[in-house]
Design a protein that fits this description.
Elements lengths: L4 E7 L32 E6 L13 E3 L19 E6 L2 E7 L2 E8 L5 E5 L30 E8 L5 E4 L6 H8 L17 E6 L5 E6 L14 H8 L4 E7 L5 H15 L8 E6 L6 H19 L3 E3 L8 H16 L1
């Protein structure tokens, strides 16, 4: 099950209490204080895990607490620290702390093994040895351990991919992903077949590849949440480049592209600045005798009005698919260099 949003509460372990104790040794009268400090409470730590791709673990389990530090003991023995509670999350997970002032982003996991402390454990309390002085040689006081931090977080997963497929429902995104990669998304000839993002690895050669993400289809008003648009759009933010997929067999592909760009801009103006490529799909549906004229008209329209170049592809026949793969890889190479 793909889950990309959760709310959790976390609490660091409380520190152990300091100890009140006095030395009791043979032939030593009125032994001095020897109460040890309490151990520190454990931290709650988020850890990045490249083997995970969903937040489903946190759908039902909402509260996580690290263990308490042990109390101090006599003979100046410090209590053991509490064990950390490590929570594993997919790469691309963001953490937004929730408090009375709203939400603030405190970090994100982008590398395997990366660690973020979500809640710190409390300090151990001081034993009575700490309070010995020239005027108080037998203190009978010790401090209790400090409380561990308690916090609430909004946890959001944004998939990390090289190329993000953007288009309206039934534009051919899932079919393209299944054609160029090892992914097997659900495919059917109706809207909203894809209800969750799907990742696929696109091989260029034995040693070259990139990751492509099929984002569920957008609709007008997606930036305001219509059609679950906000949940889908956030996954596009982390992709390095965008591939717009537009069905060539619709009345106005150019307006379709403009509407897609508008939705992205209204959600996040930075998305306009991402490198991108435009592919008009399903050219196999256009009769051969009409194809050349239509494609030429579309090329001129995109070029004259927006100075945009376009590609024509068919995932069914494989037309221009290899060229598309290589072009995307070339754009990625320039992006990374």
């Amino acid at each position: 099950m793909f889950i990309d949003y959760a709310k959790i509460k976390v609490k660091g372990g409380d520190g152990g209490n300091g100890c009140v104790s006095f030395r009791h040794e043979k032939f030593v009268a009125k032994g001095g204080p020897d109460g040890g400090d309490g151990g520190r409470g454990g931290n709650v730590i988020a850890v990045g895990d490249e083997n995970l791709n969903t937040l489903v673990t946190y759908r039902y389990n909402k509260f996580f607490q690290a263990s308490k530090g042990q109390n101090g003991k006599g003979k100046n023995m410090t209590g053991a620290d509490g064990e950390d509670e490590e929570l594993r999350f997919p790469l691309g997970t963001e953490f937004h702390q929730i408090d009375e002032n709203g939400k603030i982003k405190i970090g994100e996991l982008t590398e395997h093994g990366q660690r973020i402390v979500l809640a710190s454990g409390g300090n151990g309390g001081r034993g009575n040895t700490r309070f010995k002085s020239s005027t108080n040689k037998a203190p009978r006081i010790a401090k209790p351990g400090g409380s561990g931090e308690e916090k609430e977080f909004e946890v959001v997963l944004k998939l990390m991919a090289d190329v993000g497929l953007v288009g309206f429902p039934n534009a051919g995104k899932s079919t393209l992903l299944s054609t160029v990669s090892n992914a097997h998304p659900k495919i059917a000839d109706y809207q909203f077949t894809t209800l969750k993002p799907t990742l696929g690895v696109v091989d260029i050669s034995d040693f070259e590849s990139f990751v492509m993400a099929d984002i569920p289809g957008l609709i007008e008003g997606a930036h305001d949440g219509k059609g679950l648009g906000v949940q889908f759009l956030r996954h596009i933010q982390r992709t390095k480049i965008l591939l717009f997929i537009i069905d060539v067999d619709i009345p106005d592909p150019f307006s379709n592209y403009q509407l897609l760009k508008k939705e992205l801009h209204l959600y996040d103006p930075y998305l306009d600045k991402k490198p991108h490529l435009i592919a008009l799909s399903k050219i196999d549906k256009i009769p051969i005798e009409d194809r050349a004229e239509l494609l030429e008209l579309l090329k001129k329209e995109f070029n004259s009005k927006l100075q945009e170049k376009i590609m024509f592809i068919s995932s069914v026949t494989g037309e221009n698919i290899k060229e598309l793969r290589n072009t995307l890889y070339h754009i990625l190479q320039n992006y990374e260099n």
